[in-house]
Amino acid sequence: MHTQDQQLQQQIEAVIFASEEAVTLQTIRHITGREFDSSGLQSIVDQLNSEYEFTGRTFRIHRIAGGYRFLTIPEFADTLKKLLAPKIQRRLSRSILEVLAVIAYNQPVTRAEIQQIRGVSPEYAIDRLLNREFIEVRGRADSPGKPLQYGTTRDFLDLFHLSSLKDLPKLREIREILQENEEQEYLSRPDGRENDISD
Fold it and tell me: What integer is the mean pLDDT of 22-34?
């Protein structure tokens, strides 16, 4: 590999590795100061992933949320679940995940529409989701009072490792995510007792 090409590959690898969220093509071009299109970037990512596979690495670079991010391969999910369990307090509670699911599948949607679907007030959940930037205001509905409408953000796509809203999981998979959240909550308790988390 040419020295300049290898340097660019290393720069791209370093940028994606150091970022806590998916890195876009525009960001990578800005940081590296190099001009290349999406196919050129994908080619470099493919080369890196081939090297990771050949050397038995436990991670790959994936395209999600309109950018690129390092993710561990599925075979190590159970191992990492034990590692991440103590961080459950930073995750989303079941009720907030339910509101997020309603917004994801019905966006743009108002607070009243969310309450009609769930049967309970979504006020707290919406505030928490806005604070964590998983949802955003998408405008106002053409109805009495012109209520605010909400939709999901790129951070939401990143949270669920999705490339776009077209990749939204089926409702059955959403239930599995909720169940996994509960299992992680249980694992986070050193004495095995359940603990009610609210954010």
Answer: 91
> Is the pTM value of this prediction over 0.70?
no
**Sign of the four-CA dihedral 105, 169, 134, 114:** positive
Residue 199 structure tokens: 């954010």
Q: What is the CATH number of domain 84-187?
A: 1.10.10.10
State the Cα–Cα distance between residues 194 and 183, nearest whole angstrom: 10
Write out the two tokens for 128: 């928490």
- Distances 21 to 29, 66, 100, 121 between C-alpha atoms, Å: 16, 11, 19, 31
Alpha carbon separation from 32 to 7, 38, 46, 188 (Å, rounded): 10, 14, 18, 40
The pLDDT, as a whole number, for residue 136 is 94
Fold entry, domain 3-72 = Arc Repressor Mutant, subunit A (1.10.10)
Is the pLDDT reported for residue 97 higher than 90?
Answer: no
Torsion of CA 141, 162, 131, 120, to 10 degrees: 60
Domains 3-72 and 84-187 in one fold: yes
**Cα separations (Å) of 163 from 11, 68, 95, 194?**
23, 10, 25, 34
Query: What is the rounded CA–CA span in Å between residue 57 and residue 191?
Result: 34
What is the 3-class SS of 96-149, one letter each residue?
HHHHHHHHHHHCCEEHHHHHHHHCCCCHHHHHHHHHCCCEEEEEECCCCCCCEE
Q: Give the residue extent of every domain in the chain.
A: 3-72, 84-187
Residue 82 has pLDDT above 90, yes or no: no
